[in-house]
Specification:
250 residues, alpha/beta, Rossmann fold, eight-stranded mixed sheet, two-stranded antiparallel ribbon, 10 strands, 37% helix, 23% strand, globular
Length: 250
């Protein structure tokens, strides 16, 4: 497979930096990958899922949301809604390049954003998520709880990020079950029973809200970030197999 860097304007106008993972030969379809909260396009799970899709002939764009990784803009000005708008901007960029996005794939909060964006993108035929939350208030609780530092700083993993009240307000305003009902696309939910960041019960709530066709696959002993190399690759293969039914010519 091959990799190609790209850049395009995000929803705020700041440049977003992405990477195309290209299969050998002409792509059968194009997918768009949304990374987890405060992650980047280059985390192991994103690279492995993109690679597994490319191995099955699907080209993938993964990019850094505004204010993260190599992308421009200020993270403190972003929220869940701006992530959704960045996804829409990425899909529009791909469409302008003659690469219409047929599949959305999202990890954790990126999965929730993919569900919310999918209903707004008529060219998208299917959505797959990994460890997506059904209720974003759990993230708000973490941001205002023990992870909160002084002056609006929040410690997340090894990093420290500045957040504003608007982020918490936007998270609290989201109703994921409503986003799922509005999706009206085939939905695949991948989730590990042992996930201690977003409990697997979230997948049950999303599944219950989704229309058919819908599917749930247990990721067994994987952790939330798919830290083990075999887990990210397996998730990618599962997505590729499931999505193949929806990505062919119509």
């Amino acid at each position: 497979m091959r990799h190609h860097p790209v850049s395009f304007p995000g929803a705020s106008g700041a440049p977003l930096v992405g990477r195309l993972t290209l299969p050998e030969g002409e792509p059968l379809a194009w997918a768009l990958f949304a990374h987890c909260f405060t992650c980047t396009k280059d985390i192991r799970a994103a690279r492995q899922i993109a690679g597994a899709l490319a191995a099955e002939g699907v080209g993938v764009l993964r990019f850094d949301f505004t204010g993260l990784g190599e992308s421009g803009g200020a993270f403190s000005d972003t929220n869940f809604s701006s992530n959704v708008e960045d996804l829409v901007a990425a899909a529009r960029f791909m469409e302008g390049e003659g690469r219409p996005v047929r599949l959305l794939v999202g990890h954790s909060l990126g999965g929730a954003a993919s569900i919310a964006a999918g209903g707004r993108l008529p060219e998208v035929r299917a959505v797959a998520t990994v460890a997506a939350p059904a209720d974003l208030s759990h993230l708000s609780a973490k941001l205002i709880g023990p992870l909160r530092l002084a002056d609006g700083l929040v410690r997340i993993g090894p990093g420290v990020f500045r957040v504003r009240p608007q982020l918490l307000e936007d998270l609290a305003a989201q109703r994921m079950e409503a986003h799922v009902r509005a999706l009206r696309r085939p939905l695949l939910l991948l989730h590990a029973p042992s996930d201690d960041t977003v409990p697997v019960a979230h997948a049950g709530r999303l599944f219950a809200a989704a229309e058919h066709p819908r599917a749930f696959v247990s990721l067994d002993e994987a952790d939330h970030l798919l830290s083990r190399p075999e887990d990210g690759a397996w998730a990618g293969r599962l997505i590729a197999t499931w999505a193949s039914r929806y990505l062919g010519p119509r």
